Amino acid sequence: MEKFELVFIPSPGLSHLTATVEAAKLLLARDGRLSITVLTMQLPGDASVDTYTAKISASLPPRLAFAALPGLPGWSPQSKTSIFEFIDNQITNVRQILSNLIEHDSGDHRRIAGIVLDMFCLKFIDVAREFNLPAYCFFTSGACTLGLFQHLVKLNFEENKELSEFKNSDVELPVPCFSLPVPAKVLPAIFVDGGPMADVFLNYFKRLSETDGVVVNTFYEFEPYAVDSMTSGRGPKVYPVAPILDLSSQFNEDDDVKKFLDDQPEKSVVFLCFGTMGSFAGAQAREIALALEGSGCRFLWSLRKPGAKGSGKLVVEYDDFREVLPEGFLERTEKVGRVIGWAAQAAVLAHPAVGGFVSHCGWNSTLESVWFGVPVVAFPLYAEQPLNAFYLTREARVAEAIRLDYKKDFKGNGEPEIVGAGEIEGAIRRVMGADEGGVRGKVEEMRRKARAALEEGGSSYIAQNLFIQDVVNFNKDY
After folding, report:
1. Could you tell me which residues come within 8 angstroms of residue 97 by beta carbon, excluding any fewer than 6 positions away?
2. Which pick of 77, 280, 333, 353 has the fewest CB atoms within 10 Å?
C-alpha cells in the first residue's frame, strides 16, 4: 500500500495550531495511508506552542508528528507587521525541513504529497512549487469570511477600489458569498482602516488564488450559499471539512462552576465568554452587570480585564471583581449567578443547564455553540467577528444581536464606545425566552446537521475524502 504525507504549516500562536491539529486528526481518520507532519513556529518569549505540543504528544495518533522550526536570532517585534515578517523569514527553514523530508521518502516507503498552509503562511507556496508539490490553504475561519476576503482582494486589485472609503460608511455591499447585502460597518477594520496592515492582509489573501485548494473550517449545511458561490465561480477548489473542534477542556471534579451548573434547571443559564482576547473594564463591565441583574436570568460570566499598556498582555485576570462591578452586585446575585475568570468554554457549553451564550462570535466559539445547540447573543469585538455576527443573526438566524457594528478600542486613544445595559438585556431576554420556533429551534436543527456532516456519508466526511483523493490524483497526474 502506497503511503503519502502532508506537511501542515500553521502560523505562530496557539489558536491556529490547535485548529490545525484537530483538522489533521480528522484527515488521518479518513485514510490509513496518510501521515501528517506539522511544522510549528514559536515567537520569542511565547512558550505556549512548546507547552501545548509537549502536553498532547503522548495522545497523538501515531501518524501525526511535530517538527519545530528554529527561532530567528535577533528577531524582535518592531511594528504591527513584524509577526508577518517573522513568518516570511522562515522560508529558508521551511525549505530545508521539506528537503529533508523528501530526501527520506524512500526510506519508509512514503512520499511527500503536498503542503497545507495557514492563511498567513501563503508565501511558502513558492517552496511548494520549487519541489513540484501542490500547495493548499487551511482557512481557520468560515466560508463567508473566505469569500468576503476574496471579494475585497478583487475590489482592491482588479477594480482599483480604495477600501478605506468604506470606513464608517452606511453603504451595504453586494458580496457573492452572502445572500443579503453586507453593511460596510461589519467589514473587518483591518481592511478599511488603511495603513500598512491592510496592504499586508490584502497581499496575503491575494495569493489564495495560487493555491490548489482551500480546506475550510465549516460544513456545507451551515454556509451553503457561500460554499455554492465559490464552487460555481473562479478560484481554487473549496473543501468544507468541519466542524473542527477542540473539545478537550473539562471540569475538575471539585470545580465550583460545575457544581453551580449542576444545581440549575435545564437551559436556564446564560453563559458570557469572549475568547482569548476578550476583556472588559470600567463602564462596559458595569453595563453588562446591570443587564444581567435586570434580566433576572441565571448566569455564568467569564470576566477578564485588559492588560496594562506596555505589558505585552492583552488580557489578564481580575484580582477582585468588586473593583469593576456595581456595588453589591455579587451579593445580590449570589444565588443565581457566578462571575469567574478563565472558563472551560466547551465544557460549559456542553452542560444541559446552559441555554444561551453571550459571545464575541469568534469562529471557534461559533462552531462550538452550533455543536452544542446553544443559541448566541452576538457581542462582536474585533477582526471578522462583526461579519460572523451578521451571518449568525441575519442569514443563519441562530443568534440575536446586541450590536453588530461594535468594535472594541484596543488602542485606547479615544473615549471607548459603551453598549448600554438596555441593549444587552433585551438581546439576552430574546434568546433566553426563545421558543423552538425561533433561534433555539434553528440552532438545534444546525446541531443535528453538524454531527451528521461528520458521520460516514455526511457532507464533511465526503469533503475530507475528496480532498485526500485530489491530493493523491494531483501527484499521479503531475
Report:
1. 39, 67, 69
2. 77
